TrEMBL record:
Listed GO MF terms: iron-sulfur cluster binding; metal ion binding; molybdopterin cofactor binding; oxidoreductase activity
Entry keyword Iron-sulfur: yes
Listed name of the protein: Anaerobic selenocysteine-containing dehydrogenase
Top-level taxonomic group: Bacteria
Record flagged with keyword Endoplasmic reticulum: no
Entries under InterPro entries matching the protein: Asp_de-COase-like_dom_sf, MoPterin_dinucl-bd_dom, Mopterin_OxRdtase, Mopterin_OxRdtase_4Fe-4S_dom, Prok_Mopterin_Oxidored
Similarity comment text for this entry: Belongs to the prokaryotic molybdopterin-containing oxidoreductase family.
Length: 757
């Protein structure tokens, strides 16, 4: 790989002139527009540039100037001395006091050779499924991974594919696929026009929204209230969002499905259904009515902790608002990652459909992005259970197995056992259930490679790490989150600064890997010489087609350029181009895909009868070993944290430790623990020590911890994070607790107990 670079090694002088650059933040789904002040060269002609300041871009039609403290940390990431800029390989040496691991910098050429050889050899020896892939969350936040990643992954021909999706939003995709015929057909709440918003298991004031790209959500909720609308939050904790809501219902964790079925029950029982324009398309309405009959609000109240009168009132308020401007139920992480994630997300869609709020202003709508991945068929409609995992028999979804089975597929001998792993922009040791077990399994692999710029809890197990550039060093067009935004916007950002000499973008890494791997496994590939040659040629071509060229082609294909939306125009408007509010479009896209909406998919039809006893019978306390009182563990996000990987920025981790166990005063009394005291929390899978934060803002019997902490593992090379390690909630969560239908990780309501204070 020869990359010519001018000498940019000198830092710009302190009084060097500053330039203004517009970009976006890719850290979370809000994709806020940013304005950077940059000193030095931004085009490679002078000393390497330095970011002087980061501010919100007032001219951005979506984010309107909003940012959060993490945006400024993009500068810290750029400057972080711990961030890898060159490939490294792990070298274990025998010293006088035992073995020592060190990371040796190697050339890109050597690194690619090692990776291709390591993966190809495993495939030759153990078959394609012995090579696994785990793709973490930033893959969808970095468009080069979206445009070029599949080139390489598809070549591996492995069924052992995993991603953060199954520790997150998998139920949304299953339900979208079942109801609307496409895994990405997720209706987005029309927050700017609705009159009633019911939020379950989401805390957008901390997370800045999810499956709802909604920068400046606080102002949008305020506007909802000032136009006479209502915000209701259902969450076991009185979150930042619950605190500004009109009403907060502190539900018992893991019971949302029961409560939502009671809402559906009430809509039928009180004749509140009004499906509106979609009515002629709905199949099996009567079957839903019959199936929810046992789940009256009275029958589920003991389980959920929400009294029947409140449930009935919420159903009535939602129905009333539906005929006065629109209402929408929205559920996120907290309801996806539980034992009944799919049933919960299905019930949410059913409520929105039965009240006529899907595909209408003020309800929830599909978006109309300039590049529509559904319409352009750039993503398949999805499939569930086309095959099952080897050990547990968990279903695949759209070619991926749930990450809860990853460790057991590595640890269980037999044909198809995973022997090699590629992680790309992921940290599954901290982010997947029973992370400690995975940590141990990774240490036993024959070969591991990570595409990542940190030596963290996961990548420390790699044989080779391929580090891509960081966000401000490459251009960006948000292929995924512009699809999920509360307003239609198109925005392309140039790189903010010149990349460091000799570095590669993610897409370049994939393009190179794809080409070299194709040559290496030539003999293993099926198909004739012609098809194999075509594959090689495509890969050679894709190496010459950077993401922005594909964007230009895509805009043309989508017909967007016909309406004047070209790459040149996007370049002239780095703040973004407003394409207007969400518009009804579901019916048109439905007819093209799947003509009707089956309200009662087979997976739900067989599931509901099985839930009657559990949801409406006597409430059984959680199993508790040796008689210890058992608490239900849930998660938590903090605005200054970003999953597991922004903890190496001093400004984001300074101040009081945030990895604390929230506990209700009654439980603190029962366990004789005081605020600030460190306790050992245990579960079936492990134990961790964390300080307790006593607060009446959490439901009794429930404790909450944030995820993404636990940086004290040996070999991590992130100095700031190591100085603020915290402990990993996923040493307590359980790979055996999963959603009954999709096998998505069930992080909510994990039984834990306090071992020692
Ligand atoms: N208990 C519990 N567990 C959870 C959650 C929870 O709420 N509770 N949340 C879950 C959710 S929603 C998610 S999405 C997952 C996230 O889980 P993961 O995706 O596994 O983990 P992240 O912490 O996002 O790690 C991202 C990694 O990508 C690297 N990275 C960042 N940018 C780039 C880039 O541009 N290119 C490359 N190649 N690498 C990059 C970072 O250095 C880091 O190592 O965690 C899940 N785990
Ligand atoms: N600051 C910050 N922002 C982020 C991230 C981050 O790590 N930090 N991560 C990003 C990612 S990858 C994602 S997916 C999104 C997630 O965005 P959100 O879905 O908004 O995530 P959380 O803030 O974790 O909110 C989940 C809420 O569910 C509640 N909850 C837990 N269990 C239950 C339950 O059983 N029932 C109900 N009703 N509620 C429950 C929790 O108390 C919590 O308030 O955030 C994104 N934005
Ligand atoms: S809310 Fe913060 S982290 Fe999310 S995109 Fe905006 S600035 Fe970035
Ligand atoms: Mo996520």
């Amino acid at each position: 790989m020869a990359h010519a670079h001018p000498d940019t090694s000198k830092a710009p002088a302190a009084d060097a002139p500053t330039h203004t650059r517009h970009g976006a933040c890719n850290l979370c789904e809000a994709i806020c527009g940013l304005t950077f002040q940059v000193q030095g060269s931004v085009d490679g002609t002078g000393p390497q540039a330095r970011i002087v300041s980061v501010k919100g871009n007032e001219a951005d039609p979506l984010s309107r100037g909003h940012i959060c403290p993490k945006a400024v940390a993009l500068k810290d990431l750029h400057e972080d001395p711990d961030r890898l800029r060159q490939p490294v390989k792990r070298v274990v040496e025998q010293g006088p006091h035992g073995s020592i691991t060190r990371w040796q910098t190697i050339t890109w050429d050597e690194a690619f050779d090692l990776v291709v050889e390591g993966l190809a050899r495993t495939r030759e020896q153990h078959g394609p499924n012995a090579v696994a892939v785990y793709q973490g969350n930033p893959n969808v936040h970095n468009w080069g991974n979206v445009t070029h990643g599949h080139l390489f992954f598809s070549q591996l021909k492995t069924r052992s594919r995993f991603s953060a999706t199954s520790a997150d939003q998998l139920p949304h995709h299953v339900v979208a696929h079942w109801l609307y015929g496409h895994q990405l057909a997720i209706p987005i709440p029309d927050i700017d026009r609705t009159q009633f918003m019911l939020v379950l298991g989401g805390n957008p004031l901390a997370s800045n929204g999810s499956l709802m790209t909604v920068p400046d959500v606080r102002a949008r909720f305020k506007a909802l209230k000032s136009r006479g609308g209502k915000l209701v939050v259902v969450d076991p904790r009185r979150t930042e969002t619950a605190a500004i809501a009109d009403e907060h219902l502190a539900i018992d964790p893991g019971t949302d499905a029961a409560w939502l079925l009671s809402l559906v029950h009430t809509l039928f029982a009180e004749e509140l259904t009004q499906p509106g324009a979609l009515a002629p398309l709905l199949d099996h309405v009567q079957a839903v009515r019959d199936a929810v009959a046992p789940f009256s609000p009275e029958a589920t109240a003991a389980l959920t902790g929400i009294d029947a009168a409140t449930t009935r009132r919420i159903a009535r308020e939602l129905a009333a608002a539906s005929s006065q401007g629109g209402a929408v139920a929205y559920g996120r992480m907290g309801v996806s990652t539980q034992a009944h994630g799919v049933v919960s997300q299905w019930a949410i869609q059913v409520i929105n459909l039965l009240t006529g709020n899907i595909d209408r202003e003020g309800g929830a709508l599909l978006t109309s992005p300039a590049l529509n991945l559904i319409q352009m068929k750039l993503m398949g409609p999805g499939h569930l259970g086309a095959w099952r995992s080897r050990v547990r028999g968990a279903p695949e979804f759209s070619g991926e197995l749930p990450v809860s089975v990853l460790a057991e597929e590595m640890l269980t001998p037999g044909r198809g056992q995973i022997k090699a792993l590629l992680t790309a922009a992921g940290n599954p040791v901290l982010s997947t259930p029973n992370g400690r077990q995975l940590d141990e399994a990774l240490a036993k692999l024959d070969f591991m490679v990570a595409i990542d710029f940190y030596v963290n809890e996961t990548t420390r197990h790699a044989d080779v790490i391929l580090p891509p550039t960081c966000f401000v060093e490459h251009d960006h067009y948000d292929l995924v989150f512009l699809h999920l935004a509360v307003r239609n916007v198109a925005r392309y950002s140039e790189p903010i600064v010149e990349r460091a000499p000799g570095t590669l973008h993610d897409w370049e890494i994939y393009a190179e890997l794809a080409q070299r791997y194709a040559r290496r496994v030539w003999a293993l590939e099926r198909g004739g010489v012609a098809s194999r040659l075509a594959g090689l040629l495509t890969r050679g071509l894709m190496k010459r087609l950077p993401p922005h060229r594909l964007l230009a082609i895509g805009l043309n294909r989508a017909g967007a350029s016909a309406q004047g939306l070209t790459l040149a125009k996007l370049r002239a408007h780095p703040e973004g181009i407003d394409l207007g509010p969400l518009k009804p479009s579901l019916v048109a896209s439905l007819t093209a895909r799947k003509k009707r909406i089956d309200l009662m998919p087979a997976g739900i039809r067989s599931e509901l009868p099985q839930l009657v006893a559990a949801f409406t019978g006597p409430v059984t306390p959680l199993a508790s070993p040796s008689g210890r009182p058992t608490l239900k563990l849930i998660g938590r996000r903090d605005v200054r944290s970003n999953n597991s990987w922004m903890h190496n920025s001093e400004r984001l981790v300074s101040g009081k430790p945030r990895c604390t166990l929230w506990m209700h005063p009654d439980d603190a009394l029962r366990h004789a623990v005081a605020d600030g005291q460190t306790v050992t929390v245990a579960s079936r899978t492990g134990r961790i020590a964390v300080p307790v934060h006593v607060s009446a803002d959490i439901r009794p019997g429930v404790v909450s911890l944030p995820h993404g902490w636990g940086h004290d593992r040996e070999g991590v090379q992130m100095a700031v994070a190591q100085a603020h390690p915290g402990a990993s909630i996923n040493d307590l969560t359980d790979d055996r607790l999963t959603d009954r239908i999709s096998a998505n990780a069930a992080f909510s309501a994990v039984p834990v107990w306090i071992e020692a204070a």
